[in-house]
């Protein structure tokens, strides 16, 4: 009986000792230290889509944040990923395609940042077509600028994007030399690698996810705007290496988006790996219900093969 009590006391003490470390591993901070660029003074309308949903989904984001997830071991400079959840540019699936994913990357020894980016809106943005990209570029700038603080190798910072967040990630990876704020003209905004899960890529009529396109560009976008945000048309030899995952039966975002982007990368001799599952639909996050295969394990292998990580996982 005494040994059982002693064990409970030990676990309780361990919990008290580890609590500050757990809190430190999940630091949410404002993305901008001062005024939010391209913003209109307006009430904060951010809300939960449905409190009864299994996974939290935030709508009408006007105040972007960055949440830091650090691996337990911090003995060397590590690779990092900035995670862009999906949500059709209407909101962000902040848990299923954000915080849960960050923890999975921590498990493979990678520091992760979840970006709650602004959703395009004329109510709180001067130019809604630029707002999300400003936030993505700012996140890359912040993580690279503060890399020493987080013990990150500033030459190994990647972007992970889901669905519309994949479109934002691909835009950041193809427009890094076009800063959307003047103070970034001399900054390195190029992601070092790109991980896209069932991404929206094209805004052309053939492949476009119409909701995402309308939310970002409006109901009748000009042809030059569609071209600018159709990422398969903007790939160059400097576009970062990419790892892509899609399901062939995705009825929301056609698998052709990933296939077209992979073809464009291949044509420019940029390293790319594309996994197309026969089924699984859209929005499955970390776990495709149609297969026991886990794309995060494949991704870890790809990162190691491309020398972005050492392949060492965190101790259980």
Describe this structure in words.
The protein is built from 8 helices and 11 strands. With 316 residues, the chain is an alpha/beta fold. It has a single domain (47-305), classed as Alpha/Beta hydrolase fold, catalytic domain (Rossmann fold), CATH 3.40.50. The chain has an 8-stranded mixed sheet with strand order 1-4-7-5-8-9-10-11, with helices on both faces. Helix 3 (131-145) packs across helix 4. The longest helix is centred in the N-terminal third of the chain and has 23 residues, at 2-24. It is globular, with a radius of gyration of 20 Å.
Provide the descriptors you would attach to this structure in a database record:
about 20% strand; 11 strands; alpha/beta; Rossmann fold; about 325 residues; disordered N terminus; three-stranded antiparallel sheet; single chain
Q: What is the helix/strand order?
A: HEEEEEEHEHEHEHHEHEH
CATH architecture: 3-Layer(aba) Sandwich
Beta-sheet strand percentage?
A: 15-25%
Q: Compute the separation of the termini in Å.
A: 29 Å
What is the quaternary state of this protein?
A: single chain
How do the strands of the widest beta sheet line up side by side? 1-4-7-5-8-9-10-11
What is the total number of structural domains?
Answer: 1
Radius of gyration: 20 Å
CATH class: Alpha Beta
* Alpha-beta content class: alpha/beta
Question: Which regions are unreliable across 5 or more consecutive residues at pLDDT < 50?
Answer: 1-24
**Average pLDDT, all residues:** 90
**Tally of alpha and pi helices:** 8
Full CATH superfamily name: Alpha/Beta hydrolase fold, catalytic domain
Number of DSSP-assigned strands: 11
Assign an overall shape.
globular
């Amino acid at each position: 009986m005494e040994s059982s009590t002693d064990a409970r006391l030990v676990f309780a003490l361990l919990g008290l000792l580890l609590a500050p470390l757990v809190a430190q591993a999940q630091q949410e901070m404002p993305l901008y230290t001062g005024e939010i660029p391209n913003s209109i003074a307006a009430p904060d309308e951010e809300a939960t889509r449905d409190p009864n949903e299994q996974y939290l989904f935030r709508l009408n984001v006007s105040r972007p944040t960055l949440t830091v997830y650090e691996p337990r071991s911090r003995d060397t400079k590590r690779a990092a990923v900035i995670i862009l959840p999906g949500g059709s540019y209407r909101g962000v699936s902040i848990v299923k395609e954000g915080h849960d994913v960050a923890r999975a990357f921590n498990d493979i020894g990678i520091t992760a940042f979840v970006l709650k980016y602004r959703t395009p809106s004329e109510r709180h943005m001067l130019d809604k077509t630029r707002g999300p990209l400003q936030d993505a570029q700012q996140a890359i700038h912040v993580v690279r600028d503060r890399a020493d603080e987080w013990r990150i190798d500033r030459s190994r910072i990647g972007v992970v994007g889901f669905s519309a967040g994949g479109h934002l990630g691909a835009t950041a990876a193809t427009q890094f030399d076009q800063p959307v704020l003047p103070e970034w003209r001399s900054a390195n905004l190029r992601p070092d690698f790109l991980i896209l899960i069932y991404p929206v890529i094209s805004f052309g009529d053939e492949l476009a996810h119409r909701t995402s396109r309308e939310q970002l560009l409006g109901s009748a976008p000009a042809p030059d705007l569609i071209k600018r945000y159709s990422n398969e048309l903007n790939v160059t030899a400097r576009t970062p290496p990419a790892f892509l995952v899609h399901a062939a039966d995705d009825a929301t975002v056609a698998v052709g988006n990933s296939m077209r982007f992979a073809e464009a990368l291949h044509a420019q001799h940029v390293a790319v790996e594309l996994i197309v599952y026969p089924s699984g639909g859209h929005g499955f996050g970390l776990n495709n219900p149609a297969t026991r295969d886990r794309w995060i394990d494949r991704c870890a292998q790809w990162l190691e093969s491309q020398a972005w990580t050492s392949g060492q996982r965190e101790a259980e």
